[in-house]
Write a structure and sequence with these properties.
The complex is a heterodimer of chains A (32) and B (204).
Chain A (H helix, E strand, L loop, with lengths): L1 H24 L7
Chain B lengths: L3 H20 L3 H5 L8 H15 L5 H4 L5 H18 L5 H24 L6 H6 L4 H5 L21 E3 L4 E3 L1 H16 L20
The chains are: A mainly alpha (32), B mainly alpha (204).
């Protein structure tokens, strides 16, 4: 299922991009 | 669990990219070509952040050095490594977008290293709609911006009233850089033509 694999990889990449935003902002602004 | 503000910041670039992709011919197909490699680096950074937030006793050896800056440094290094690992595989505008992201993250990190926390402007916090009670409580890692603060332009000085938050220039670059990356990926690109087949040697 190459199409499903493409979709899965793109979804994981977008999730990684969204997580990168969180990891780039949150640790520098929280009270820890 | 990220705060509601953080969730909005995380989801918005992806949502905007999906909408833009829908408006562009072949946009979704182009967006589905997104291949960010070495995603385990982001997973590693997320694991460090999870440790910081849960703060288990056994991890204090890792979490306390440099007044708590060591795990923040580790997160910064892992995300920077993730960005650098993905730069070569992107087209020119994608590389520029990730460079903007990297610059923003480094600016935030510099402000924190210089001040032992991210200073924020009290007038900006008032304009953003934070209550006097919220502002009066001095939060560890979030000192007020004063005349003694270093790298003041890189601190949280920009009010964002809809989010009741104060942001830094670095935050804008982080958010803008990744939004730019995702939107640029919705553009259908002409594939680079394959080089011509080498001429056969030793022909007649």
């Amino acid at each position: 299922m190459p199409r499903l694999r493409t979709l899965w990889t793109a979804a994981l990449s977008m999730a990684a991009a969204a997580a990168a935003i969180y990891l780039a902002i949150a640790p520098f602004h929280d009270p820890n | 669990m990220p705060s509601p503000i953080m969730l909005i910041l995380m989801i918005l670039p992806v949502a905007v990219a999906v909408v833009v992709a829908g408006l562009r011919s072949g946009g979704w197909r182009a967006l589905l070509q997104l291949r960010l490699r070495h995603r385990w680096l982001v997973g590693g950074a997320a694991a460090v952040q999870f440790l910081r937030l849960s703060d288990p006793e056994w991890a204090s050896v890792l979490l306390t050095p440099l007044r708590g800056a060591l795990p923040v440094l580790a997160i910064w290094a892992l995300v920077v490594a993730f960005v650098l690992a993905n730069l070569p595989g992107l087209h020119r505008s994608g590389r520029a977008a990730l460079s903007v992201f990297l610059a923003g993250m480094t600016m935030n990190f510099a402000a924190i290293l210089a001040n032992g926390g991210m200073p924020y402007s009290v007038p900006a916090a008032r304009r953003a709609g934070l209550s006097p009670a919220q502002i009066d409580v001095e939060v560890l890692g979030h000192p007020h911006l004063t005349a003694e603060s270093r790298l003041a332009p890189l601190a949280d000085v920009l009010p964002v009233p809809p989010l009741h938050a104060v942001a830094s220039v670095g935050d804008l670059l982080i958010f803008g850089g990744l939004s730019w990356l995702l939107i640029s990926l919705t553009k259908r690109r002409t594939p680079v033509p394959a080089p011509p087949e080498p001429a056969l040697l030793g022909g007649n």
